[in-house]
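Good morning,

Attaching, inline, the C-alpha cells for the sequence recovery test we're adding to the shared suite. The designed sequence is right after.
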C-alpha cells in the first residue's frame, strides 16, 4: 500500500525544496534550485481556488492556468500573473552547485555559508 503522509512529505520536499515554492505574506513565491542532472520538475496544484501547472527547468520556470481565476505569483522577487496563456520566466542560474557525492559524515565543528556552526549528527540507531 501507499502511506499517504509519506507521499505528502515527498511532494512537499520536492515542491518546497527543489521547486522553491513558499507562501509568504499571503502570496505564493518561487526560487527553484534543481539538481544538476534533473532536466525538469513539474507538478499540478491548487492555489486560492485556481488550478495550475508549474514546470521548473534549468533555465526557466513555466506556469499554466488549468482552471479558475488568474493568480499573481513571484519568481525570485519578480511578480508575474498566471493566466490563460503560459507564462515563462527565465532563471539566471540555479545558485551554487555541488557536483558529485557528498561525504557520508558531516563536518561537525565546521560552519555553513550563513556562519552557523555544525554541532550535531544524526545517530545511526535510536536508543531509548
Amino acid at each position: 500500500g501507499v502511506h499517504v503522509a509519506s507521499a505528502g512529505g515527498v511532494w512537499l520536499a520536492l515542491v518546497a525544496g527543489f521547486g522553491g515554492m513558499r507562501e509568504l505574506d499571503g502570496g505564493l513565491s518561487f526560487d527553484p534550485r534543481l539538481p544538476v542532472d534533473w532536466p525538469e520538475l513539474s507538478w499540478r496544484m491548487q492555489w486560492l481556488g485556481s488550478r495550475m501547472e508549474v514546470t521548473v527547468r534549468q533555465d526557466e520556470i513555466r506556469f499554466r492556468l488549468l482552471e479558475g481565476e488568474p493568480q499573481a505569483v513571484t519568481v525570485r522577487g519578480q511578480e508575474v500573473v498566471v493566466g490563460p496563456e503560459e507564462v515563462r520566466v527565465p532563471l539566471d542560474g540555479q545558485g551554487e552547485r555541488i557536483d558529485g557525492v557528498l561525504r557520508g559524515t558531516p563536518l561537525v565543528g565546521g560552519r555553513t555559508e550563513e556562519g552557523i556552526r555544525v554541532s550535531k549528527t544524526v545517530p545511526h540507531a535510536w536508543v531509548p
